[in-house]
Amino acid sequence: MENTNPLAQRRFKLEELKRRGYDPYPHKFDYTHTPSDIRRTYDAATAEELKEQNVLVRTCGRIMALRPHGKAGFMDLFDGEQRVQVYARQDKLGDQGFDLFQLLDLGDIVGAEGTLFRTRTNELTILATQLFHLSKNLLPLPEKWHGLSDVETRFRQRYVDLIVNKEARDVFVKRSRIVQEIRGFLDARGYIEVETPVLQAVAGGALARPFRTHHNALDMDLYLRIALELYLKRLIVGGLPRVYELSRIFRNEGISSQHNPEFTMLEFYQAYSDYRDLMDLTRTMLTKVAEAVTGSLEVTYQEHVLDFRQWQRYTMKEAILHFWPENISRPSEEDLRSLEKLRALLQGFKVSFAQADGRGKLLAALFEAVAEPKLIQPAFIYDYPTEVSPLSKTKPGDPDTVERFELYIAGMEIANAYSELNDPVEQCARFEEQLGARNRGDEEAHEMDEDYIRALSYGMPPTAGEGIGIDRLTMVLTNSRSIRDVILFPLLRPEPETSDIRPPTSDSGLA
Asked: Mean per-residue pLDDT for 319-347?
């Protein structure tokens, strides 16, 4: 008696395929059309036109529906984009071909050859004259109506998520389109795409905790990069006036709906420009990308409708005062310059801080508490404290403020940009300040980068640079709540031990 366990049944059928002389995992399959090709080309054809043309097709895909009916049956083949129905009849396939049909399971990958026709319900269908088994699915797909609903399982088994959840596939198709549009935009404006080191002796370009590794042959500690910045600016020094890189960076920090330890960053640098030039360029680029990817300049994100025709601009201090809660006494601009007042304001919002934090860090923390969650529509926040911007150029006449902006959409930081500091003496002093913070226990403070100082000493032209988080931008343009929804394989905790993952290595338990 055949085992009623679904896994055992599939393994039994695998052995039965071998017994009957089929290779359950053949090397290749030649086809004339994908299911998507068939649908695009013949969806508009009438039954009479198909009969007159006698269209012969040879296609392949994964079985997503299987409906046997005695000596006939239907199955839907899926290529990841479209489905096409296949009609299997014993009198057309012959006994051997129909026996193969009866050994098929949902999720198997098969080929079919036959002519196109329309059923009585007008469904475009292949009347199969040959079937080909291409790959056996040994693990059942999630149940049809409920799909793969467990969130962690979806992330851990993204391959299954992509098979059964069209919405997941659409997200990653749009993500690819976002990257294509950005590349095309920058390429058309004279930027060149480059590649810089992932392994670095000094983890620089951002205030973040790095991952550490060790190179055995050179016997030296290295870091996975936390930013692309410092090497790209070395290229500006070297005479490449417009450069960009789209790549993974790594930060040894917490995981949240907006944070993953590895993520994709676009960084681009433009010589003879400042941060205001990049505000204009960013608005133009992301407006174009949003319309190309979503088909509209009004984009739905959760309960909001984001209008990419309306962009706001606030200084950091203006944003704090503009979004200050109505039920709390509003501070004055003078209060925002006082160390003691800033500490008191943060305590009122129950925001923790270190006693060693200066006014700049406290002001940035107050902004994050008061304004950041309310920045739903696209908004540039500019003029940041020098203390939290060690690589930015100071505003003329205001040494406590730098020419820096961040772009916020849907309450998330999407981009960070500034007029680049190109004075090697001042940059060295900024690094020294960061080393002091590091010695006081700030693990995210910047290390000294002697070679970068040397590069600046050869002369870097006035330059503006920017980083855009591709994952968060994709979240916005695909209406995805979590960053893990837009990363194909996000980092997860180790999987608990489970059974039934490894196929059997013997015939035991197959029948």
From this structure: 94
